[in-house]
Amino acid sequence: MKPTCLRNLHGSMIAIWFITCLLPAVDAQEPAQPNAPPVELRQPSWEDFQALAGRLEATEAKLREVTGPANAVGVLPEKKVEEQGTSADKKPAATSEERLSAVEKAVAAKPAAATFPNVRLSGFFHLDSGLFAQDANNRATLGDIQDGIGFRRARLQALGSVGEFTNYSLEMDFATAGRPSFMDVWGEQTQLPFFGNVRIGQFRQAFSMDALTSIKQLDFLERSLPFQAFLPFRRVGIMAYDKSDSELTTWAYGAYRTGGFLDAPLGDSRVGTDIGDSGGYSFSGRTTHLLYFDEPADGRYLLHVGGSYDYSRITGRGDPLLGDIYNARVIPEFFVGDPAGGGVTSAGTPFFVDTGRLSADAFNLFGLELAGQYGPSHFQAEYMATTVNQLGGSDVFYDGAYVQGGYFLTGENRTYNRTTGTFDKITPFTEFFGLGRKNHFCGWGAWEVTARWSYVNLNSSQAIPFAPVAVIPPVPNAGRMSDTTLGLNWIWNAYAKVQFNWIHCNLDNAVRGNSDCNIYASRFEVTF
């Protein structure tokens, strides 16, 4: 705006006025002169406010189209801009600023659109150590079991999606000597009509709460004796799984190839391959139901029941000379050594009980499960039984069970995965940390005490194993076995923990009778 000047000013005064007033307006980068008259700013008109309100309403409408109802994303209900007073002092309604703030928050909270394909790297390692104390008869039966320390597992996993409803996993274990081993390698399509979710590849089959609980979330160093003896575990196949709308019931069922190698006659092949042109197929299913689940406490109090069934037709590739075979065996819920070494003493902890190789073409496996949680205390129990269709003889029956429990001294509780029907991650109330070398500890993490009794019977008068193999321990090495374990878990944070187990093994060998072995074991785990 031009200042008003008197027309009768002297020429020199006009020059001064031109220099001091007009030049700063031409060159905006020059600082304003101290004596320059103030620049008048135009006050926003009512029309300006109306235009701004229109833009706000258009933005809100667009946000509702993207995210759904306005209230669902925190945007205030649409309101009209009301006129107040005369045209000179009309102002927008007092809620305009609130509405704009709500829009900004909603946009900030909305996640960025996913890009495909994507990947997330995960993994963990288990560093185990153990000391063995055997009585004389146990040493005579199994040999002198060596103490040791080693990496039980060292896994890397790539997880991600290649589409909005298509996920994948590629997991390898590097703890087995020689080369990486196949673990969970699969792709899946989610939210399908009727089937729910369908997974194809190699993965843990639908059977047992113990089996489907992540190895990273176990209360003990190894899974139970009946799991080791009977469960085929990972197989190559296809599986459908889903849960009810209430999330109280889950179900899963699938068809698989049955293991066709001597190192995994029941399944769980670590090469991701099965070969055989006769038999070699199986079916497995599991369902669970929550009899009680405390919704406000997010499952701090719950009661779970479940059941599983597996039918396996054994492949003809088990042994070119022996034909189709069935072989069940167990370690004492702890292992140190080379998992690929066949379980003999020179390669690691031996198999305490081994049925030997039975000529069989099929088996049926049944499982029942019960679990519950009451605040910081929880328990879990399962019973498993199998009937083996032995060729040239009567059917063979084996069974086993376990019951376990835990209590958090620091008050935490297990989370519950309502998709898989299993206990899940533990997050301490306070993490374990200190304040430097010259200060003190401020957090102690979570502390849990645990106990388990586990039993398996792999001794049957109906079994007709092939000729014994002269190794230590011998094969077959039939018998009954029970483990009693006391444990202490120190959970530093959601991704690191230390575990201590005392395991008392009682072995009732079919030939040498009773013997005992005590194992003092520990584990350091880091996951990411």
Distance between the termini: 65 Å
- The geometry reads as globular
Q: Classify the secondary structure makeup into a structural class.
A: mainly beta
Measured by DSSP, the beta-strand proportion falls in 35-45%
**Average residue-wise pLDDT:** 83
Give the biggest sheet: 16 strands, antiparallel, barrel
How would you spell out the order of helices and strands? HHHEHEEEEHHEEEEEEEEEEEEEEEEEE
Major β-sheet strand ordering: 1-2-3-4-5-6-7-8-9-13-14-15-20-21-22-23
The residue fraction in helices comes out at: 10-25%
| Number of helices, where a helix is a run of at least 4 consecutive DSSP H or I residues | 6
For the secondary structure, the number of strands is 23
> Radius of gyration in whole Å, from Cα?
35 Å
Low-pLDDT sequence parts: 1-32, 69-88, 90-94, 342-346
Give a structural overview.
With about 525 residues, the chain is mainly β. Helix content is about 15%, strand content about 40%. It has six helices and 23 strands. It has helices spanning about 10-25, 45-65, 95-110, 135-140, 210, 225-230, and strands at about 120-135, 150-165, 165-175, 180-190, 195-205, 235-245, 250-255, 280-295, 300-315, 325, 330, 355, 360-375, 375-390, 395-410, 415, 420-425, 435, 440-445, 445-460, 480-495, 495-510, 515-525. It has a 16-stranded antiparallel barrel. The chain has a two-stranded antiparallel sheet with strand order 11-12. It has a two-stranded antiparallel sheet with strand order 16-17. Strand 4 (about 180-190) and strand 5 form a beta hairpin. Helix 2 packs parallel to helix 3. The longest helix is centred in the N-terminal third of the chain and has 22 residues, at about 45-65. The two termini are about 65 Å apart.
